[in-house]
Design brief:
- It contains six helices and no strands.
């Protein structure tokens, strides 16, 4: 039976998990699907020439899957101080100053966490390309599904990173975070889309 605890917590009114954690979860699913393609490829005579590549890719995907699972909790822990800062009183100038400082400090961590998810998902997408092109043809649709999940994870995490980065008053730091998120999107969304289109073509015409 599928453990639905995470999904139930996601659907609740609790501040965490949220979009960042869900994106990391989605990325972990992408890594797991890509790993499955590799596991269905190794040991097959037809794919003997890519055996070593498959083993190396499977090993790295396993590390990335674990990293993304850890990033679910890391994203939640990064967001909690921000959620707490929003609730701080602001009746006096002193309280306003304290709230402002708490929010600015919390925004940095709340931006860095989804950016970390984006970086990890970028590598998952890269390795999914390997599985789509070199893995078992019998599992190519799963490689395509991995690319779909990887793309969704990247986009979902970017939304959390960008919404928090724009409220950071250190403009240089804000621009740095925004630029990195936009660069990751510019590189890896087209790559994921290319994998998906490649798989659609293979599934439909071969």
């Amino acid at each position: 039976m599928v453990d639905t605890t995470f999904i139930e917590e996601l659907a609740s009114s609790a501040p965490t998990p949220g979009g960042g954690g869900a994106s990391a979860y989605c990325g972990a699913l992408a890594a797991a699907l890509a790993t499955m393609v590799g596991n269905l490829t190794v040991g097959k005579k037809r794919y003997a020439d890519v055996e070593d590549l498959m083993h190396a890719t499977i090993e790295e995907l396993g590390w990335l899957q674990d990293e993304l699972i850890d990033e679910i909790d890391a994203d939640a822990q990064a967001f909690l101080p921000l959620a707490a800062a929003y609730k701080l009183p602001k009746s006096t100038p002193e309280e306003q100053a304290a709230k402002h400082e708490a929010m600015q400090n919390a925004l940095v961590a709340a931006t860095e966490a989804p950016l970390a998810i984006m970086r990890t998902c970028a590598r998952v997408i890269q390795l999914t390309e390997v599985m789509a092109q070199k893995g078992s043809g019998l599992a190519i649709s799963d490689a395509g599904a991995a690319a779909v999940f990887g793309r969704a994870a990247m986009q979902g995490a970017s939304l959390n990173a960008l919404i928090n980065a724009k409220d950071i008053e250190d403009h240089e730091l804000s621009r740095k975070y925004t630029r990195e998120a936009e660069e990751l999107l510019a590189i890896y969304l087209p790559k994921a889309e290319a994998i998906i289109e490649y798989v659609f073509w293979k599934v439909k015409y071969e």
